[in-house]
Amino acid sequence: MLSFFLQKKKTATQENFWIEDLKKQPRPKFHTLEIADIKRETDDCVSIAFKVPANLRDEYRYAAGQYVTLKAEIKGVEVRRSYSLCSSPLEDEIRVAVKRVEGGTFSSYANEQLQPGMKLDVMTPQGNFTVPFSPSKSRIYVMFAAGSGITPVMSLIKTILWHESRSRIVLFYGNRSVSSIIFREQIDDLKNEHLNRLEVHHILSREDQGTDWLKGRITADKVRLYAEKFFIPASVNHFFICGPEKMIFEVKDTLEQLGVEESKIHYELFTVSTAGQNAANDTIKSTKADVLSHVTVILDGEETHFDVSSKGVSILDAALDAGADVPFACKGAVCCTCRAKVLEGKVVMEMNYALEEDEVEQGYVLTCQSHPVTERVVISYDD
Ligand code: FES
Description:
This protein is of the alpha/beta class. It is 21% helix and 30% strand. It folds into three domains: 120 residues, Beta Barrel (Elongation Factor Tu (Ef-tu), domain 3), CATH 2.40.30; 129 residues, Nucleotide-binding domain of ferredoxin-NADP reductase (FNR) module (Rossmann fold); 93 residues, Roll (Ubiquitin-like (UB roll)). The strands form four sheets. It has a six-stranded antiparallel β-sheet, with helices on one face. It has a five-stranded parallel β-sheet with strand order 9-8-7-10-11, with helices on both faces. The protein has a five-stranded mixed β-sheet with strand order 13-12-18-14-16. Strand 10, helix 5 and strand 11 form a beta-alpha-beta unit. It binds FE2/S2 (inorganic) cluster. FE2/S2 (inorganic) cluster binds next to loops. Keywords: 2Fe-2S, FAD, Flavoprotein, Iron, Iron-sulfur, Metal-binding, Oxidoreductase.
């Protein structure tokens, strides 16, 4: 029997969370939402659905592949974490999946203590790990996911299957073992219901499935092999990759070597390695002249002024110190919550894994990564 989630709405309506135009998505904002449901997906992963009151529905409309930031006070300390939505905007639901990570403050709290009826601060959805979908399209999508990287991919898969009835998807999904496969039953149900449109290959690192190409991790060699056996790189409209940083860049580089245009490769990073952060810190220290800058930050039409040195803290941290309630989540260049536009002066970013090239060209920066290099800088979170 197909599980109940397949019976839900599959067309874009006012009642579900479908958004037509991402450009109309409001600037991210926290609201306190009640937990509607918690489902155990695997031994170390829960999914959490939220109740969205009618007056906030428009703010929580989202695109498949986007994420929300959750905020909670745990043992007296404010903790913020971003989690991808695993629900499709075509469902009447807004749901994230949280996999426990070793020593993870929020993920342990979510897996052990959260209950339906409790309340959490949930930021409105954001993110660029998506493309516009349309029933008129007939596309081929290839997706690579590992572990909890399946979360946004799950949202994308459901949306494509339900909204683009002529499109096909090939999914390569890496896990340790069968028992650690998040959404295993849901994926099987979708595959059974859309036999000719969804092809799934599970790659397991600790279980033998009888073939070398399904054993181990998703590596460059495997991507080359899969490109011979399961898809023609030039025929694929979009590739989506989500998982550990190493896997993402190995798959992305290999696809590019196989001739895939960069614009067709979409990836979502959850964190950046310490090595990457250190390299960025070293670069910024060695390349910046030390300028003391007078910075103006505009948020909700209000200005906050402060001075910060180009070798000091980021503009985001300086703005928070100055009392501005500026938005942030990861402070690690991956989530895009701290995005703002430079209206005057110049800043440099240490790292950027969140903004698209055209956004950077238009003057958008990640303020958690930005340092001023001119004596006056004006930055707006409202543009
Ligand atoms: S807070 Fe996440 S990119 Fe700046």
